[in-house]
Amino acid sequence: MRVRARAHTHTHTHTHTHKQEKARLDLDRESDKVHCEAFALRIFGNADRVDRMGKADANTSKAFYAASIFFDVSSRAGAKSVFSTLRVPVGA
Fold it and tell me: Tens digit of pLDDT for each residue in 26-83?
């Protein structure tokens, strides 16, 4: 019975601490978008490099998919994308 009481206390303390940390978060939509987009670009770049070397496998496919999810998340942030300033030729 004491083990359960300790677990409950730990869970309660953890939840309380989490709520305090969440309350202190200073969110900046533009900065968050930039970080998310940079992360997506890094994942995509790594997968692209592996693919161009001819060493693509299931993990490469998963990396491309993960990058697409992060690009989608960053596009929904509402701030201007770095892609709006890039001019990439079709087929590049």
Answer: 677 888 888 999 999 999 999 999 999 999 999 999 999 999 999 999 888 765 555 5
Beta strands in 1-92 (DSSP E): none
pTM for this model (two decimals): 0.57
Burial of 16 (0-12, 13-18, 19+ CB in 10 A): exposed
- Spatial distance between the Cα atoms of 14 and 23, rounded to a whole number of angstroms: 14
Apex CA 15: angle with CA 14 and CA 20, to 5°? Answer: 95
Instruction: Return the amino acid letter for 61.
Output: S
